[in-house]
Each structure stands twice: as structure tokens, then as C-alpha cells.
Amino acid sequence: MSKPRNQEYSIGKWSIQFWANIHMYCHRLVASKGKKTYELHCEDLPIKGPFVGVWLYETEMPDLHRDELITVLAKWGDKTEKRLKIYTEREVSHLNLGDGTIRIEKTSPTGESLEKS
């Protein structure tokens, strides 16, 4: 039996809703806390993983919410077994490796790591 396309999770005071593949490799990701709701740009990435990319810097929100969401999304990724690449700036991403760790790395505008492994 496959998972439903619409999944909802509660993590702390945040609610995360995820609709898989609303258009090809693009997903709908909504994060809510209290009366604030944010639509987050989210899609599969063409890098080995597989990884789902989330672009936080494209959504206007207070810095406090952005900082909280990095942790909340990482926990959501662990809970749902999704490996995430969370972009907080055009050239900075937070890589959730799926084992409870988050690695911050510099990336090119195409999403490729600029750091040597």
C-alpha cells in the first residue's frame, strides 16, 4: 500500500504538510506555526541521494522562524526518511543526511557543493 500524497506532521509547535509530486518532481510543502503559514519551494534534486531541495531564502519570514525551520525540517526529514538540502541563502545550504546530523556547506547557484569531500 502506497503512502498518501498528502501527509501532515507535528513537530514541536510547527505543523508540516507535504504533498508529493504535485507536478512531476515538484512537491508542495507548507509549514505553519500559530497564525503564520509559509509555502516553501520544494522539489527533488538531480544529485545522488536522492535529496529533496527546500528553498527557505525564497520565502519571506522572520529570522527566528527561518532558524527554527532548519531544525524542524531536519527532524521532519528524519521522521519521513527524506534527505534534505535546505537552502538558507543562494550559496549556503544545510544538508540533512538522514541520521540526525546537519552539515552546512557552500553551494553553487546550480546546487553543486563548492566544498571538497
Written overview of the protein:
- The protein is α+β, with helices and mostly antiparallel strands.
- The protein has one domain.
- It is built from 1 helix and 8 strands.
- The protein has an 8-stranded mixed β-sheet, covered by helices on one side.
Give the arrangement of secondary structure elements:
Blueprint (H helix, E strand, L loop, with lengths): L5 E6 L2 E10 L2 E8 L2 E10 L5 E5 L7 H18 L3 E6 L2 E5 L5 E5 L11
Parallel strand pairs: 5-6
Antiparallel strand pairs: 1-2, 2-3, 3-4, 4-5, 6-7, 7-8
Q: Which labels suit this protein?
A:
eight-stranded mixed β-sheet; alpha+beta; 8 strands; 15% helix; 117 residues; globular; 47% strand
Strand content: over 45%
User: Can you list the strand order of the major beta sheet?
Assistant: 1-2-3-4-5-6-7-8
Q: Radius of gyration, rounded?
A: 14 Å
Question: Could you list the spans in which at least 5 consecutive residues all have pLDDT below 50?
Answer: none
Helix fraction by DSSP (H/I, runs of at least 4): 10-25%
- What's the story with the biggest beta sheet? 8 strands, mixed
Mean pLDDT: 82
How many domains make up the 3D coordinates? 1
Topology pattern, helix = H, strand = E:
EEEEEHEEE
Give a short synopsis of this structure.
The protein has 117 residues and is α+β, with helices and mostly antiparallel strands.
